[in-house]
Each structure stands twice: as C-alpha cells, then as structure tokens.
Amino acid sequence: MIGIQLYTVRTLLENEAAADKSVAALAEMGYECIQLFGGTTNLDMMRWCVNAARKYGLKVIGMLSN
To answer: What is the dihedral of CA 56, 1, 10, 50, to 10 degrees?
Structure first.
C-alpha cells in the first residue's frame, strides 16, 4: 500500500475545494492511503481531507498530532 503524509502537501489544503482537488490528484497519482496531521489545530482541514479520501477511495491510516 502506498500512502502519503498530508503534511507534505499542507499548503494545498487551504479550503474544502482545494483539499478535494488535492486528494483527487493524489488518488490519480496512485496513492492508496493518507495520514492526517494537525491534532486539534485545524479540524475543518481534517474533515475536508477525510471526506475527499472517502470520495476518491483512499484509506485514512492515521494522524500525526502536533
């Protein structure tokens, strides 16, 4: 399984539409799972990414907390 830590693309996750587009691109590149980041500092961003992951068939495999 190939995954990516979303901290790597954090500058692309500024709003819900951007997060959706970014996760879609990651899925298209062949990533199969994502790891969230941020702890409680940005719950909206995490929600956007989880929703996009579900939409594009990626698994959420964990979370890096600050």
So the answer is: 40
Helix (H, G, I), strand (E, B) or coil at 56: helix
Q: What would the two tokens of residue 27 be? A: 């899925």
Give pLDDT tens digits along the chain (66 positions).
999 999 999 999 999 999 999 999 999 999 999 999 876 678 899 999 999 999 999 999 988 766
> Cα 29–6–50 angle (5° rounding)?
90
Q: What is the pTM of this model?
A: 0.89
- The amino acid that residue 30 corresponds to is G
Task: Please check whether residue 58 is in contact with residue 32, taking contact to mean a CB–CB distance below 8 angstroms.
Answer: yes
- The rounded distance, in Å, linking the Cα atoms of 13 and 18 is 5
